[in-house]
Specification:
four-stranded antiparallel sheet, 13 helices, 18 strands
Length: 466
């Protein structure tokens, strides 16, 4: 394939990087010039969501194009329990890597995996460089990585170590074939400490507007308190989190410089996103969907950055309002690479390709008006105005928020007779959506009977505490 026809792809999936934590999305205190540039000269989705607001299922959704209630991963996968870590969670799925490798792409993974067996190269990836061991882990010091199945200890900050290996792949690749490079940065995941001092010091003394001294979330108790000691010093934790964003931004700058040097910039689609969002003081919480018990679907938990940049093929300078998610991103990458024909209809893919809007700034009048999410037996339907959060177990609390009147999600309208029609309508939408797509054997409504995926699953904790 001549260079003018290649459709190279770099997919960057960050860890806990919230949408609110980038300059392009309105954070005036974050320094992210490279990402701001990619957004300004590319396409930025202003309403991008994760299908599930926790790591492993979110990543599986993106790589398979299927819901947690289809692939069966409903919570983060323990890396320390052998029976969980060694289970082949994706054995019944076809990932982007497998599909692209089958179409002649060179495929590489560099960074976080967190879908089991991270020390062994996974199906579809021809080059494998994966972090190995417990999550969370320190950001500096010595780190264990699997390089094509061989465990190596590498010292330094993980963000530049991962970037080094990504650049090494770009330099050593087969120049006669397109490539798919999947990068997983850890930097914004807790513990919020150990970032480069030259970056962290720039954020100490910032106002951190909207993040400190927030009212307590009224619809669930904070969870995981014992595992996140860095939240005890919120200003320092925020300085470290912001520094991690800037460190990732620097890494993206290195990747862009390398693409320029290799004359690959024009032929490479860059996609920048995150597995899910994160609260860093909003609602008085630190964490994502599992920051509370019962689990939550707060905007900060479910919103993710989603930026596309490709100078040759994409209409530049767009900010799109459509509600989209990682299931759509899967379809978009498949469409861009020309492999949509390999997707089997019997897999009931819920997503839809964004490629028409990436290539043409025209609006999409028939785009869906509802965003659905799930986390175990919690399901959500969100329109531009309303968000319904339903928990499907006995005596479970549910919420309805009027986002136009209550953007902080502090007033529950679920039992308000004036909103009963909205509750009934969105309940039907949830039931219809999941009935059309879910695998009954892997449905999130069965999580209380399915095999455990870690030791802190909300549904087991709720059962044990009565």
């Amino acid at each position: 394939m001549p260079p003018s026809e290649r459709k190279n792809i770099i997919l960057v999936v960050n860890d806990d990087l919230a949408q609110w934590a980038l300059g392009a999305y309105g954070n005036a205190e974050i320094r992210s010039p490279t990402l701001d540039y990619l957004a300004a000269t590319g396409l930025q989705m202003d309403n991008a969501f994760t299908p599930t607001p926790v790591c492993s299922p979110a990543r599986a959704c993106l790589l398979t194009g299927r819901l947690a209630s289809q692939h069966g991963i409903h919570d983060y996968l323990s890396s320390t329990i052998e029976s969980i870590h060694r289970r082949p969670w994706l054995k019944d799925e076809l990932t982007l890597a497998q599909l692209l490798a089958g179409a002649g792409y060179q495929t590489a993974h560099c960074g976080k995996w967190h879908l089991g067996n991270d020390d062994q190269p996974q199906a579809g990836f021809q080059h494998w460089f994966s972090g190995v061991g417990d999550y969370p882990a320190e950001h500096g010091g010595d780190h264990r990585f699997s390089l094509n199945g061989v465990i190596r200890t590498i010292a330094g900050q993980r963000t530049p170590v991962i970037t080094d290996k990504a650049i090494a792949f770009l330099r050593a690749r087969d120049k006669d074939a397109p490539f798919f490079l999947h990068i997983g940065y850890f930097g914004t995941h807790n513990p919020w400490r150990g970032q480069p001092e030259r970056l962290a010091t720039a954020y100490r003394g910032k106002t951190f507007e909207g993040l400190l001294d927030q009212p307590a979330y009224p619809f669930g108790a904070p969870a995981l308190e014992a595992t996140l000691p860095t939240r005890d010093e919120p200003r320092e934790a925020l300085a470290q989190y912001f520094a991690a964003v800037s460190h990732i931004d620097e890494a993206m700058g290195r990747l862009l410089d390398e693409l320029d040097a290799l004359e690959l910039r024009e032929s490479t689609l860059i996609v920048f996103t995150s597995d899910h969002g994160l609260c860093c003081g909003q609602h008085g919480l630190w964490g994502k969907g599992n920051a509370t018990l019962p689990l939550n679907m707060l905007e900060e938990s479910i919103r993710v950055p989603l930026i596309f940049n490709q100078p040759r093929d994409l209409a530049p300078g767009q900010r799109r309002p459509e509600s989209v998610d990682h299931l759509d991103l899967f379809q978009t990458i498949a469409d861009y690479a020309g492999i949509s024909a390999a997707l089997k209809a019997d897999r009931k893919y819920p997503g839809r390709s964004l490629l028409p809007m990436l290539e043409n700034a025209a609006c999409e009048p028939d785009w869906r008006s509802i965003q659905f999410c799930e986390y175990g037996d919690l399901r959500m339907a969100r329109t531009e105005r309303y968000k319904l959060v339903r928990r499907y177990y006995e005596n479970a609390p549910c919420e309805l928020f009027d986002l136009a009147d209550d953007p902080t999600e502090s007033k529950n309208r679920y039992d308000d007779p004036a909103f009963q029609g909205v509750v009934d309508s969105l309940t039907r939408d949830i039931d219809d959506y999941f009935m059309r797509h879910q695998d009954p054997n892997k449905s999130g409504l069965r999580v209380r009977e399915l095999p455990a995926q870690n030791l802190t699953e909300a549904w087991r904790l709720e059962a044990s505490t009565g």
